[in-house]
Amino acid sequence: MPVIARRLKLLASEDTVLALASFRTGQRVRINHSAKPYYLHGATGTVAGGLGQMIAVQLDHPIGRFLTGDLRCPPQALDQLT
After folding, report:
1. Which letter does DSSP use for residue 32 in this model?
2. Given Cys at both, which of 17, 43, 45, 52 links 57, Cβ 3.0 to 4.6 Å?
3. What 8-state DSSP symbol labels residue 75?
4. What separation in angstroms does the CA of 46 have from each of 6, 14, 57, 66, 67?
5. Contacts with 63 (C-beta within 8 Å, 6 or more apart), sequence order
6. What pLDDT sits at residue 15?
7. Is the confidence at residue 21, as pLDDT, over 90?
8. What distance separates the 2 farthest-apart alpha carbons in the chain?
9. pTM over 0.85
10. Which ranges of 1-82 does DSSP label H, i.e. alpha helix?
11. Buried b vs exposed e over 38-73: b needs ≥16 C-beta within 10 Å?
């Protein structure tokens, strides 16, 4: 792997760790516009916990293929609600 690619991967992992640290179980969140599938944009939910580099979210209203409302997504796809 080229040096530049390794550096970019390292920076991305640092961003993920910092983003993971900013969320707590029970916190209210909104799915932002970086998430896919697009129909999730703007959906709200509650952080249910962390799963490695992903965050488990319980959606307020099940949508699309997420019939149970359980969703795992990267922390960069979430915005904190106050």
Report:
1. -
2. 45
3. G
4. 34, 24, 6, 15, 16
5. 39, 40, 43
6. 64
7. no
8. 44
9. no
10. 3-21
11. eebeebebbbbebeeebbbbebeeeeeebeebebeb
CB-based contact 73:48 (threshold 8 Å): no
| Six-digit token string for 44 | 């709200």
> Percent of the chain having pLDDT more than 90?
59
Q: Per the structure block, which two tokens stand in for 42?
A: 């703007």
Per DSSP, 66 falls in state B
Starting at the edge strand found earlier in the chain, the sheet holding 28-31 runs 70-73, 54-59, 44-51, 28-31, 78-80
Q: Tokens representing 81?
A: 């609600």
Angle at CA of residue 57, ends 54 and 58, nearest 5°: 155
